[in-house]
Fold this sequence. Notes:
It contains five helices and twelve strands. The chain has helices at 13-22, 49-58, 62-70, 80-85, 178-198, and strands at residues 3-7, 26-30, 41-44, 75-78, 86-89, 100-105, 116-120, 129-133, 138-142, 147-152, 155-161, 164-167. The chain is globular, with a radius of gyration of 15 Å.
Amino acid sequence: MITIGVLGLQGAVEEHLNQIKAAGQQAIIVKKPEQLHEIDGLIIPGGESTTMRKLMDRYGFMEPIKTFFEHKKPIFGTCAGMVLAANELNGDEKAYLGLMDISVKRNGFGRQRDSFEAELSIKGLEEPFKAVFIRAPFADGIGEDVEILAVYEENVVAARQEHVLVSAFHPELTGDDRFMQLFIEMVKTSIFKEELKTC
Length: 199
């Protein structure tokens, strides 16, 4: 069993925890940077990206998360987590964690009242995935090493680059754990590679 942490500063924390547990894995809420040493993968949940950035600064998460990333530990950013993971933000706002070579437009599909659901074709999943978009961003610039996993109206809404996965939608708000399973497999692969190094 692997242990996946959900950054517990703000946002849809419980929903992620429930989906991880439903998938048969161990889940913990990460509220202190030192807890990053206890987990195999990290989820940065949806919420309000500006508020989350301020809280990450206040509680000293910025450098520890970057170190976690540098150690090749898998990270999954949903919605606001996608914004925080980007190398570049559309507009004047400075990017924060810079974990993935993408440019992201915040609230790309509109504000709260413009929230919607859509059937997506996602690379790696055989059947369409019903995605929930709430004040969702999208990627409007993609680096050459980034793998596009899903597109909605010609906008990239899910992508992967090495050990980082992002989605503009909220997979944790559905009863479908297939997208979460993509991340779980990334974590298992990361653990396997580490074990090979120690052999």
